[in-house]
Fold this sequence. Notes:
Layout: H1 2-24, H2 28-57, H3 59-64, H4 67-85, H5 87-91, H6 95-120
Amino acid sequence: MEDRRKQTWIGLAIIALVALVIVALPSGGTVVTVITDSLQAAFLLLLGLAAARLYRTQSFWLSSLSDRDRGILFGAIAVAVFAIAAKERFQSLGSGGLLLMYAVVAACGLAAFWVWRESRRYAI
Length: 124
């Protein structure tokens, strides 16, 4: 147990040291922008890889859906991706624009949940 705590403190010290280096650099704003953009790109890449893996593992379930349900699911995914990609345009509308974007993404999530629930329901 003691070994684990030591590793945790070492990890926290490394994170604090990296943060200190970023803040202390002369052009800290540019470095921070590059780091955040790199982290965002890595996050989006991982999301894409996770989506591809999910598509491969669930291909049988997707092919068993009706055309209508598959269209609703893929349409909801497409609208959510476009809404997230247009986040800056939504932000230009103010806080109401961001609320609208979140509402669109939430509606897409509800549509995907509805398709999943309908696929699990027994037909009489």
